[in-house]
Amino acid sequence: MAKRDYYEILGIAKDSDERAIKKAYRKLARTHHPDASSESPEVAEKKFKEISEAYEVLADADKRSRYDRFGHKGVDFDGGGFSWDQFSHGADISDLFGQLFGGGQRGGMGDVFGQFFGGGQRGPNNRGDDLRYDITMTLEEAYKGITKEVEIPRDGPCKKCSGSGAAEGGTARTCNTCRGQGMVQRMTRRGFMSTVSTDTCSDCNGTGKSIDKPCSGCKGSGIVSINKKIKLQIPPGADHGFRLRMRGQGSAGPNNGPKGDLYIVVNVKKHEIFQRQDNEIIFDLEISPAQAVIGDSLRVPTLSGNVKLKIPSGTQSGDVLRLKGKGMPDISRPSLVGSQHVRINVKVPKPTGKTRKLWEQLRDLDSEKPSFLDRIMGKFG
After folding, report:
1. Strand, coil or helix: what is 162?
2. Is 20 in the same domain as 96?
3. In whole angstroms, how large is the CA radius of gyration of the chain?
4. How far apart are alpha carbons 344 and 319 in whole angstroms?
5. 223 forms bridges with which residues in the sheet?
6. How far apart are CA 36 and CA 3, in angstroms?
7. Handedness of CA 32, 60, 108, 203 (dihedral sign)
């Protein structure tokens, strides 16, 4: 079954601004959250996840741009589909659900979204950090795609303690202060008002564990700085700003926590002779007046090598000749390749002593009716 259009899901126009997108999502989230909806939990959860996926894409300028250009394939969440750990806009509606479900009395946003986002009071957030790696490519490399091994500095499990954080003979017990949650709640009273805040447990630094004998190699965190070699594969057609997500290739989490993700960001260098517009390539070609009048057959460069181009008789400066299939491949549909557009510029030479008389003769011939140029181009019988 084909996925629905994200704009249709949120009920907004394609030119909607950020404010309109957020307003539409907040309204739908209020209606379809399973804890507030009158629908069955299964139906409400499905709808809530659908609108949240649409908002995750449309509220992000980069994701929205790729979606507008490539559709769902441009933001396929690395082929695995949308999951709640990829939702990064929970703060946009935290106040909304605080009002609906009692805010601090129930733990606020964590309680409401805990079942979806992995938050709430389930335990310490010991997931490793996400990392970013920028790779610079030439236009030729972007055309062909590249496979490259790179070295990424990141946090990895401490080998000395196998990531436990405890030295030999030491033990890791549940923290008594936060009872393994990694977070503690504090209530502040001001007159008749009281507020509840959730902070990282200072006794265990958010790990949920108390170590009586910390490892000397990692100081009890279970992680150390390492350099990891990773094989990158950038598919053909990547454009400037393209992002590739590699799950589980980020930093390791403390106390054997899950690894974060690695985001590869592509930067494409400006080319000396080619200009890129999406999957189309623009190339400027200078020709002489004689070539423009009489026509010619030339070999011109493309990203796949030199090809023959026919210059029709009577070509004008500013004309654009098309070389089909000589542009950039579509990153979401490799079989679809753009064109190269050759933009003609007729270069008029400055006459010298030898050529001035010839140009003057041509000018005199061209002043006749029909003109010399009209006659040689066969416009008159």
Report:
1. coil
2. yes
3. 32
4. 5
5. 157
6. 25
7. positive
What is the CB-side half-sphere exposure of residue 379 using CA atoms within 13 A?
11
Domain co-membership, 138 together with 158: yes
- Looking at the structure, tell me whether residues 222 and 285 fall in a common domain: no
Domain extent, residue 296, equals 274-349
Q: Give the pLDDT confidence score for residue 376 in this predicted structure.
A: 57
Paired tokens of 318: 């500013």
SS3 for 308? strand
* Dihedrals phi, psi of 280, to nearest 5 degrees: -100, 145
- Supply the CATH number for residue 27's domain: 1.10.287.110
Cβ–Cβ under 8 Å, residues 91 and 25: no
The rounded percent of the chain whose pLDDT value lies above 90 is: 29
Residue 157 pairs in a beta bridge with 223
The DSSP letter of residue 71 is G
- E strand map for the chain: 131-137, 146-157, 172-174, 183-190, 193-200, 209-211, 223-234, 243-246, 262-268, 274-277, 280-287, 296-300, 307-311, 320-323, 340-346
Tens of pLDDT, residues 82-124: 777 677 776 666 555 555 444 443 333 333 344 444 444 444 5
* C-alpha to C-alpha distance for 146 and 72, rounded to whole angstroms: 24
Amino acid in position 84:
W
- For residue 257, the one-letter residue type is G
Cα 306 from Cα 323, distance rounded (Å)? 11
